[in-house]
Structure to design on (291 residues):
């Protein structure tokens, strides 16, 4: 009985020791076995691993592709048009031993800080090159620039045991102080285009009005010409009729013309006529025979 009492704690200690000596690495991880800070074992394949209990410890690192966002920085391309850009990167821990030696106990967080510095330096260097302008950065050619940033960053990141998979520029904006000037220039350009359109419209309207005025003048002139022709033909027809009437009865024609003259001269109720009594105008008032 006494012996069983001593065996149980011993078994518990043995089981605990065995359990503490076993660790599991899944397919998303890599692991290092450290002894007093020195690397004693590298475990890069998934499965069970073993270590010395209490003396050795296991440090695991993510083996997946990780994301890193950089802060927005200001760059000045060769055309001196300042831009605010930010980027993001995809990276993975390629050499876990070199990674541990480079970043120490800081781990992934320390590596990200150093990687941000590398990316920002390469972004400034590539986008500030002599042949790179702001138009190039804002054009489809930016894909070539991103590849250049990625390739140049890989060399520095390799010293950290990191492989940079991809680098992308997320946003490319003008600084706040330049936005108003840019917007003002855009407004001035649009206003100039609007003024040009208005001027062209006014010119077209003037041409239309001039053409319309010319058409009106031509139509009125043609109508007046036609009216004069018709009036002349009517006058000729009237004179012909008068001539025929005069030829048939000269006395009646003279009498008719005198009556017409009397009617037109005395059409108003307050008409006064002053003339010599022997005037021929009143021949038909004086002559008893109707003369």
């Amino acid at each position: 009985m006494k012996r069983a009492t001593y065996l149980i704690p011993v078994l518990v200690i043995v089981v605990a020791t065995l359990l503490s000596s076993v660790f599991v690495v899944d397919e998303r991880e890599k692991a290092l076995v450290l002894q007093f800070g020195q690397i004693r074992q590298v475990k890069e394949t998934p499965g069970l691993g073993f270590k010395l209990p209490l003396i050795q410890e296991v440090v695991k690192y993510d083996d997946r592709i990780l994301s890193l966002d950089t802060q927005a920085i200001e760059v000045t391309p060769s055309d001196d048009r300042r831009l605010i850009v930010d980027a993001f990167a995809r990276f993975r821990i390629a050499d876990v031993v070199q990674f541990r030696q480079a970043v120490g106990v800081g781990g992934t967080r320390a590596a990200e800080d150093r990687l941000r510095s590398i990316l920002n330096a390469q972004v400034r260097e590539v986008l500030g090159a002599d042949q790179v302008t702001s138009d190039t950065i804002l054009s489809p050619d930016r894909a070539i620039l991103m590849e250049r940033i990625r390739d140049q960053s890989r060399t520095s990141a390799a010293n950290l045991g990191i492989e940079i998979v991809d680098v992308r520029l997320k946003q490319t904006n003008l600084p706040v102080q330049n936005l108003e000037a840019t917007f003002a220039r855009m407004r001035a350009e649009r206003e100039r285009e609007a003024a040009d359109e208005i001027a062209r419209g006014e010119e077209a309207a003037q041409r239309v009005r001039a053409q319309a005025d010319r058409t009106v003048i031509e139509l009125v002139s043609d109508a007046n010409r036609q009216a004069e022709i018709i009036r002349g033909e009517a006058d000729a027809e009237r004179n012909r009729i008068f001539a025929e009437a005069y030829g048939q009865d000269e006395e009646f024609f003279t009498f008719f013309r005198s009556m017409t003259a009397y009617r037109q001269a005395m059409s108003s109720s307050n008409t006064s006529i002053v003339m010599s009594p022997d005037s021929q105008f009143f021949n038909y008032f004086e002559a008893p025979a109707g003369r």
Q: What stands out?
A: The CA atoms of residues 202 and 213 lie 16 Å apart. The chain is about 55% helix and 20% strand. The longest strand covers residues 162-173.
